[in-house]
Amino acid sequence: MRHRAVSLRQHGFLVGLTTHILRAISDVGRCVKFSDEAPHLLANVRKLKCSLTYFIEPDYGLLDELLSLEVLTLPKRAVVRSKETVYQRNAALLDLLETEDECCKFLKALKQSGQQHVLNYITANGGQKHDAIATYLSVVTRGNNGKTDMHIAF
Question: In the CATH hierarchy, which fold is given to the domain comprising 40-124?
Answer without folding.
Answer: Death Domain, Fas (1.10.533)
